[in-house]
Inverse folding.
């Protein structure tokens, strides 16, 4: 049976247990505090947010080099026939394009970079499902057919505590940032056409959370749903949302995820998200 290896980048924020069980390799992005570059796989989430709070200047982020991709692909290629490589949206990072460039330099194994068009737990769904299907002996085409069906129902919404992080990081326009600040609203954001844009504008965080939960409930009413509550260093609030939804729907498989250092740089501490797809 042909061997298929799975790669994702660190912004999927899959825990160690999931990575080991599914034999998923991770290529890390980095955060840069002044002149100090730290791979986000080498820094815990709490440590990162504490470090960011302690500094006036926001960190920046950097993507993996093409050489890092080539090294990983060549290593995996020694024991694989194909590599599926899942990455955060090409609309907010050049990581996917770098993976594509690296794949063209590899001769002895077929590499298939995949633009998740999103990030974090939603990106992780693709990698974990691909690993599961590969273990079942599915072909590359069969795996991508399933991933396409996931993409058709995938949804993800998030609420940030401070739009300045997105604005300063270049992930949201000045006009959009000003609108949120001027009206003192909590915009619900989502990915559209690979970039972060407002979905709806709501007055308070409580109302924003309620609205996002309503969106999930529309899908959960139709059948089994896989969901994740994602948070930026507010685990208690995230668990409250998870528990509320878990008790309400028997057909909902829901857990917690995190906005780690790279994504947290752009969203800021105390951000919350909810992502899901129909199983």
């Amino acid at each position: 049976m042909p061997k298929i290896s799975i790669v994702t980048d660190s912004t999927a924020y899959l825990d160690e247990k999931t990575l080991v069980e599914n034999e998923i390799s991770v290529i890390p992005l980095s955060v840069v505090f002044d002149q100090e570059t730290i791979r986000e796989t080498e820094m815990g989430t709490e440590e990162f947010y504490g470090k960011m709070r302690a500094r006036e200047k926001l960190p920046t982020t950097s993507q993996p080099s093409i050489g890092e991709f080539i090294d990983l692909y060549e290593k995996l290629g020694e024991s694989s026939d194909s590599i599926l490589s899942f990455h955060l949206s090409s609309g907010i990072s050049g990581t996917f394009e770098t993976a594509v460039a690296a794949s063209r330099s590899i001769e002895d194994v077929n590499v298939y970079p995949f633009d998740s068009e999103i990030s974090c737990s939603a990106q992780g769904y693709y990698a974990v499902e691909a690993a599961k299907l590969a273990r079942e002996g599915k072909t590359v085409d069969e795996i991508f057919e399933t991933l396409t069906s996931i993409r058709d129902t995938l949804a993800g919404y998030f609420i940030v505590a401070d739009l300045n992080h997105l604005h300063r990081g270049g992930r949201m326009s000045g006009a959009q940032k000003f609108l949120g600040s001027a009206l003192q609203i909590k915009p619900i954001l989502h990915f559209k056409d690979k970039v972060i844009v407002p979905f709806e504008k709501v007055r308070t965080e409580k109302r924003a959370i309620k609205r996002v939960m309503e969106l999930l409930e529309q899908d959960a009413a139709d059948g089994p749903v896989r969901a994740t509550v994602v948070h930026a260093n507010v685990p208690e609030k995230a668990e409250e949302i998870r528990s509320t939804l878990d008790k309400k729907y028997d057909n909902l498989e829901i857990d917690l995820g995190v906005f780690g250092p790279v994504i947290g740089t752009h969203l800021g501490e105390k951000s919350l998200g909810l992502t899901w797809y129909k199983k």
User: Anything to note?
Assistant: The chain has two domains: 4-29+64-152, 155-278. Confidence is low (pLDDT under 50) at residues 169-175. The longest strand covers residues 195-202.
